[in-house]
Amino acid sequence: MGNRLNPDDLPVADGRVYHLDLAPEELARHVIVVGDPDRVPVLAEAFLATREVDRFHRGFRTITGVTAETGQRVSFVTSGIGAPSTEIVLNELAALNEVDFTTMTRREQWQPLTLVRLGTSGGLNPATPVGTLVLTDYVVGLDNTALYYDIPLPDEACALLEERVRSIMTGAELPGARFAGRIAPYAARSDRGLLASLTAAAGTLGLPWIRGLTISSAGFFAEQGRGVARVGTTHVNLLDALEHLASPWPGFELQNMEMEAGFFLHFLGGLGYRAAAVCVVINQRTSGVFMADYRRQVLDGARLILRAFKECETV
Ligand SMILES: O=P(O)(O)O[C@H]1O[C@H](CO)[C@@H](O)[C@H]1O
Ligand SMILES: O=c1cc[nH]c(=O)[nH]1
Questions:
Q1: Which ligand is nearest to the CA of 279?
Q2: Whole-angstrom distance, CA of residue 204 vs CA of residue 222
Q3: Contact, 197 vs 137, CB < 8 A?
Q4: Of the candidates 41, 49, 54, 45, which has an alpha carbon nearest to the alpha carbon of residue 66?
Q5: Does CATH number 3.40.50.1580 belong to domain 12-313?
């Protein structure tokens, strides 16, 4: 029992993990993770033929069931907003998959989970219309939550991206800003096989979609170039600066900005799970257009992911 987990390290009450209020057998091996808890019942209503679990705790709604279209068991899980919240959820999902809750020890064997983040995002590419589904190829995270997890660089493209974004961020800093030089961009990528399945499903369904580069910010306002508050910001014209990122590399077109894909792909890639991100472009940061009703596009995104899950199952 040397590797028994301390109840304070992994809090479990009534056999269910603390924040998600979920037991190991209640989690499916294919998971769609959404930011907004209200999106969970919408997806369940649209896609599940049967429901076996519906839980809501600490703002995290989870529904598990079998889909009508593919007959696959799937969980819809909430990440909440931002990397810190996502860090809690993904650690608990991994524990549900890898820990025996009766002995509180790590299982010797477990199957990797397959997870896709389905979210909304701000469009950074003027050529990509609002309503498009962005399949994240690579992501650069600007939060510091991921920096607590020492995961090797996935490839050379990630190394290049980290360097480029670091240099762009530094160049956009206001001279003398207190936190100048403190932001450390990190890059991650979607699982190649899962991304290929998503790309194939998107082509089959005939939806507006594009593959590209995503920026994951640590916040929604100053972090995404929104100077709303009455305090100064560390960077000037951050969005203008980031827009210059894509140009040197065909295939690395910058597409969108959101708040979870960076940690999601970094952490899950480190665990060896299959993970990807699909986000609807709901506004155009460069022109200021905003689409408040994106329910149909989110449902399209979920349909696409469920198709890809089914294809992956046979690979
Ligand atoms: O729609 P979700 O999945 O929440 O994603 C986006 O929307 C939130 C900001 O409004 C952030 O969580 C961002 O990543
Ligand atoms: O602009 C946007 C829209 C959605 N989500 C974000 O994080 N930013």
A1: 1
A2: 38
A3: no
A4: 49
A5: yes
Give the C-alpha distances (Å, rounded to integers) separating 264 from 120, 174, 206, 218.
15, 30, 27, 13
Both tokens of 295, joined, read 């329910």
Q: Give the number of the atom of ligand 1 that is nearest the alpha carbon of residue 121.
A: 6
pTM: 0.97
Q: Is the pLDDT of residue 20 over 90?
A: yes
Alpha helices by DSSP H, listed for 116-221, are: 156-171, 192-205
Task: With a cut of 90, say whether residue 132 has pLDDT above it.
Answer: yes
Q: 186 with 162: CB under 8 angstroms?
A: yes
Q: Is the CB of 120 under 6 A from ligand 1?
A: yes
Average pLDDT over residues 74-83: 98
pLDDT in tens, 244-274: 886 667 767 999 999 999 999 999 999 999 9
Give how far the C-alpha of residue 171 lies from the chain's centroid of Cα atoms, to the nearest Å. 27
DSSP 274-304: EEEEEEEEEEETTTTEE-S--HHHHHHHHHH
CA 257–ligand 2 middle distance (angstroms): 6
Domain ranges of the chain: 12-313
Looking at ligand 1, which residue's alpha carbon is closest to its atom 4? 35
Amino acid found at 296: R
Q: Is residue 259 within 6 Å of ligand 2 at its C-beta?
A: yes
